[in-house]
Amino acid sequence: MGVEAGAQAARSRALAVLRIRSRALAVALLPAAVAVVLYAGDTTGHLVGPGWHAARWTVTPLAALVLLAAAGIALVVARARPAVSPTVPIAEESAPDLYRMVRDLADRLDVPAPSAIALTPDCDSWLEDRTHPAHGPPPQTDRDELTGARGAHRRTTAAPVLVIGSPFLWWMRVGELRAVLAPVVAGTGPSAHPDIAAARRFVRGLDAAVAVSSTSARCRLTRGVCAGVGWVARLLLRGCREHAALMERGVAAAAAERAQAVDYGLRIVAQEQVGLAYAGWDRLLTRVALPAWRMGRWPSRLDAGVVAALTELSRRDRLAEGFASRLGERPACDLLEEPGAIDEAASLLAARLFHGGPAETGPDWAPVTWQEYPEEVVDRKWRLDAARLHRVLDAQGIHHTPDPATPATAGPTLSRVLDYLATPPDTAAPVPADVAVDVEGEDGESEPGSERTHTLAAALTTELAREESTAPEAKAPDTQPPPLPWDDATLPLFPLQPPRTARELLTDHVTAMVCCAAMDTAGATPGLDWLDGPTLLINGERTPDLAPGVLSLIEDGDPVPLRHWLTQAGIRPEKPLRLV
User: Fold this and answer.
1) Residue 559 near residue 514 (C-beta atoms within 8 A)
2) Is residue 83 classed exposed, middle or buried when 0-12, 13-18 and 19+ CB atoms within 10 A define those classes?
3) What is the pLDDT of residues 254-267, one digit of tens each?
4) Is the distance from CB of 352 to CB of 360 less than 8 angstroms?
5) What's the pTM value of the predicted model, to 2 decimals?
6) Which residues does 106 contact at the CB level (< 8 Å), separation at least 6?
7) In the chain, which end has fewer C-beta atoms inside a 10 angstrom radius, N or C?
8) Helix or strand run (H / E) with residue 8
9) What sign for the dihedral angle of Cα 172, 175, 181, 183?
C-alpha cells in the first residue's frame, strides 16, 4: 500500500475493526479459559473443596454452550453469501481494447489490475469484491486476464471486479472514460492490503449474516436461533460501523490522491459529462423506458438511447461549445467487440432492476427497438388509456352526450369526454359508492377542478388499481436457470414509480384521448421525443403543446382552449375512434 495519508488512515481504521473482531473472540473464549483455570487448579491441589467443585460444574456447561454458539455464529458469518450487485459480465474476448486500457491504467497507477470487468445499468462505477466461496469457484488460468502474470494456480478473482456504468461507455469518449476510471482503478491498491481486505471481509460477513437471520418462512426453533445470530451480528456491526465508514473514506481519499497524476485536466471535463449522463439516463428511464416496461415491452438499446437523448439536449440547450467536435472523437463503446449485444443485455438488466420481470423474453415481455417504439408502445398506450377512460364513464352511467334524450353517437368519441368535463357540477352524475373522492393534494390543500373532475380522477385511480391487482403473474420457466450471484427473487431492486396523483392520471388519459382522435381523424402519427417521451406528429412535425388546453378543461371546466387547439390541428372530436 502506498504512502498516501488516506491509505494510512484506512489501515488504522481497518485495525480498529479487526480489534473488535478479536474482542468478540476473546469474550467467546473467556468462559472456556475460566473453566481451564478451574480444572488446572484442581489438578495442582490449589482450588479444591465443594465450592470450587460446584464452580467447575457450573462454568463447564456454560463454556461449552458459549463455544458452540460462537462457532455457529462464526460459521454463519463465514458461509453467508455477501450481497453482489447485478451486472453484465464482460469477457476479455468481447472487449480486448477495454481490458487493455484498464491494464495500462493500472500499470501507470502502480496498482494491481482488476480481476474482471462488468457493466451495470446505472451512472456509477466501483470496485466489488467477489472472492467469497458462495459466489462460485474462481477460474484458474495459466495467464492472468489483465496483468498478464503467469502461474499454474493463480486466482484471477483475487483482485476486485471493476464495475462500469454502461451509459458511460456509450456517451463518453475513450479519453474521458479513462480519466473517470482512474480513481476507481486506483482503489485496487488499498484493497490489496491484508488488513483492509480482512476488515472488509469481516464487515461483509456480518452484513450477510444479518440478511440471513432476517429471512422468513422458518420453523419456530430456527427463527429463535437466527434471531440470536442476528442480534450478535447487529451488535458487532454497530461497534465497527464508524470505523468501517472511515476506512472506506480513507481508501477513497488514497485512490483519489494516487490518481491525480493521471489525466487530471481531462478528468475535470469528464466529470461534467458524468452529471450530464446521469441526467439523460434518469430522463430516459422515467419518460421513455418506464411506459414501455408497463406495456410489457423493454427497449433493447437503452444506452444508444442515452446518446440520442443527450445529443438532443445539447442541441436544444447549447450546453457546451465544440460539442460537435467532441462527438467526432472515438466513443468508449468502440472498445467493445459487439456493443449492440452488450447494450441489449444491459437494457434487459435495467428493465429487471428498475421494473421487474422475467429474465427471458416472451409474448408478454418482448424487446422493442426504437424504430418500433412509436407503434408498439406509444400508440398502444394511448389507445389503452382512452379505452380505460371510456370504461370508467360507462361504469358511472355517463351517456355519450350530456342530454340523455339525444341519440348517442355510435362508438367512443372525444366529444363525450369534452362535454362531460365541461358540464356544470349541478348536472353531474351521482358518485358510485366504491369510488373514494380525494380532492386534496399532497400539501393538504384542495386541488383545482370541479367535483366531476375529482370523481372521474378517483374512478380512474380505482380502475387502474383493479387492473394491476388482477394482472396475471409471470410464469416460472420450465427449466431451472443457472444460479446467480444475486438474489433474483428480490428484483426489482430500485423500482421506478414516479408520483402519479389522481389528477395526473386524469390528465394523461384525456391527453391520450386527444391523441387517439388526432390519429384517427387528422392523420397524426405517434412519435418519440428522447427527452419528453411519447409525442404526437402531424405531417412529420411535432404538434404544439396541448397540455395547457387539457389542464384548462380539467381544472376550470373550460373546453374553449382545447377545442381551439383541435380546430387548428384539424381534429374532429365527434368522430368515433378505434380503441383497444
Assistant:
1) no
2) middle
3) 998 988 888 877 88
4) no
5) 0.84
6) 112, 113, 114, 146, 147, 185, 188
7) C
8) helix 5-44
9) negative
